[in-house]
Every structure is written in C-alpha cells, then in structure tokens.
C-alpha cells in the first residue's frame, strides 16, 4: 500500500516538474521585443556632429529569448509626449526652467513608422534624419517614442517607450560631456588663470565665457558674459559677442594672434586657442591675452 502512495507522489512530482519545465522553456524561447535604451528613464543618447547638413541616427529594437526569431517581428513606432512629461517631473519636479524639451519638429524626420527584426536576427532599426544646426547647447532635447503591437508581437512593457536624446558636438566642444579647457594669460596686464567650458554652436564656432568671468548657466548670465569664437578654413579666429557683451578683437599681438591650432607632442594632441581681445560688461572694460587649451584624443 505504501508503495502505491509513493508511486502516486512520485508521478505527481514528475508531472509538476514537467509542467514547470514547459513554462520555463516557453519563457526562455519567447521573442519579447524591447526598444533599446538605457535604464535611466529609458533614454538613448545620439551624439551628432554639427556639419551644416543632415545627420543620420537610428532607433533600434531587440528581441529577447534564447534563440533568434524564426519569423520577422514587426513593431509599430509612434511619437509619444508622455515619457518626456514623466522624465521632467521625476528629474526636475516643479523646476520648469530646467525641463528638457521636445526636439522641434523641423529638426528631424523618422523615416519609417515601424521597426522590423528579420527572421534569424536579434535586432532591427529604423532611420532618423536629424538637422541639429541651430539647437541650443543649453537645452536637453528628446524625441518621445512608443512601440506598438503591429503584428501580434509581444512587447516588453518596461521597454515599450524611450526618450531619444539628440546631443550636439563639433571639432572643438561637445554637449555630451563638460568640454573643459584651461586658460592662462593676462587680464589688463596681470597674470590670470581659469578653467573654461566651451559649448558647440555650429560646425565652426563655440561659445565661451569672456576673460576670467564666472560662468553661470542661466540665460541672463550667459547673455551678459559670453562670446563666440568662430574659426575659418585657415584656423583664424573671429571673436564676436554672443548676446549683450561688447567685444573688440585685437589682431596686433604675434604671441596671441587669434588663431586655433592643434599641437602634438609625446603622442598627445592639444587643442589651442591664442586670443587677444577687449570686452566690456557694464562699465568695466578688460583687455585679455589668453591661451585656452585642452588635451584631446
């Protein structure tokens, strides 16, 4: 009698175990689709070079599961403002002046409203044409996107939306990180030194705080204290006001000839600006001679 009970229990355990294995295998082989992004609010950073022309970017999706899908997986792609609303509230709460912005419609074109993951592959993507010139280096720009079920494909809920971030850079500076240059020189004949962050504006221009002024990342301060360095094809630098500051370029000093150059020594490359100018903020005028430099890869 005991042997009968033991046999029944053993059979029951075996059946449960088989069923668990079936569920486990089903989960393992399930081709669940997700938009590719970081875990930080489902953001994806696209760093684009300012060239004056369109730049190509991509939105990608991946298929989960142990094996690549045996059939094409197609998901729809829609623009969605909700992820950006949630992001701004989570990161900045009620500080609306710090909110990230939607990338202006004229600055991009999504080339297809779907992403196809081909049979036998694990990823698929669609192309975005970007027109980044004119974007402000002081703003964060996103395209909010949402994956939709276009053909019975299962979409991973936590990765069904994404914030596609467009980050600008040029040869001299990048919005992707703090492009910090060191400055040594003379202010009204007195030795001075400081660190300066440069911001990309166009393919051949950057923004920089004047002299040894303190940089404050608020628009009124930027308008008051910043100037533009614009390089021509021969690396001559033209110094211009960014907004309210008054600037006079001085081209009579061979030590500070208003030039940009790349110095190479001991396997290292260094971006160098040699600048001479006079600027006025309010009623105070300062004569600057400065070397602004940063090591680059």
Structural features:
single chain, 297 residues, alpha+beta, Immunoglobulin-like, Lipocalin, 2 domains, six-stranded mixed β-sheet, six-stranded antiparallel β-sheet
Describe the structure.
With 297 residues, this protein is of the alpha+beta class. The longest helix has 28 residues, at 2-29. The strands form four sheets. Strands 2, 4, 5, 7, 9 and 10 form a six-stranded mixed sheet that branches. Strands 11, 12, 17, 18, 19 and 20 form a six-stranded antiparallel sheet that branches. Strands 1-3-8-6 form a four-stranded antiparallel sheet, with no helix packed on it. Residues 6-28 have low confidence and may be disordered. It has two domains: 32-169, hypothetical protein (bacova_03559) (Immunoglobulin-like, Sandwich), CATH 2.60.40; 180-296, Beta Barrel (Lipocalin), CATH 2.40.128. Helices cover 15% and strands 45% of the residues.
Shape: elongated
Largest sheet, in brief, is: 6 strands, mixed
The fraction of residues assigned to DSSP E strands is: over 45%
What's the CATH class label of the largest domain? Answer: Mainly Beta
Rg, rounded, reads 28 Å
- What is the residue-averaged pLDDT? 89
Helical residue percent band: 10-25%
Give me the CATH fold name of the largest domain: Immunoglobulin-like
């Amino acid at each position: 009698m005991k042997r009968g009970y033991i046999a029944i229990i053993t059979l029951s355990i075996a059946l449960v175990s088989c069923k668990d294995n079936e569920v486990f295998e089903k989960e393992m082989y399930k081709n669940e689709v997700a938009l590719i992004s970081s875990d930080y609010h489902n953001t994806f950073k696209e760093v684009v070079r300012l060239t004056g022309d369109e730049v190509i970017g991509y939105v990608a999706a991946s298929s989960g599961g142990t094996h690549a899908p045996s059939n094409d997986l197609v998901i729809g792609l829609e623009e969605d403002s909700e992820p950006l609303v949630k992001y701004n509230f989570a990161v900045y709460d009620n500080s609306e002046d710090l909110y990230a912005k939607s990338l202006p419609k004229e600055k991009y074109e999504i080339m297809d409203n779907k992403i196809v993951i081909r049979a036998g592959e694990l990823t698929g993507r669609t192309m975005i044409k970007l027109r980044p010139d004119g974007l402000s280096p002081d703003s964060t720009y996103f395209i909010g996107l949402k994956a939709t079920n276009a053909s019975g494909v299962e979409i991973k809920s936590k990765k069904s939306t994404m914030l596609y971030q467009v980050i600008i850079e040029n040869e001299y500076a990048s919005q992707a990180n703090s492009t910090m240059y060191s400055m040594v020189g003379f202010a009204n004949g007195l030795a001075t030194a400081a660190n300066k962050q440069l911001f990309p504006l166009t393919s051949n221009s950057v923004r920089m705080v004047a002299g040894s002024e303190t940089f404050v990342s608020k628009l009124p301060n930027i308008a008051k204290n910043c100037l533009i360095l614009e390089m021509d094809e021969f690396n001559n630098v033209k110094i211009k006001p960014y907004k309210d500051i008054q600037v006079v370029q001085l081209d009579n000093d061979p030590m500070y000839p208003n030039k940009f150059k790349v110095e190479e020594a001991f396997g290292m490359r260094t971006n160098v600006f040699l600048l001479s100018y006079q600027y006025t903020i309010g009623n105070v005028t300062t004569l600057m001679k400065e070397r602004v430099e940063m090591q680059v890869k």
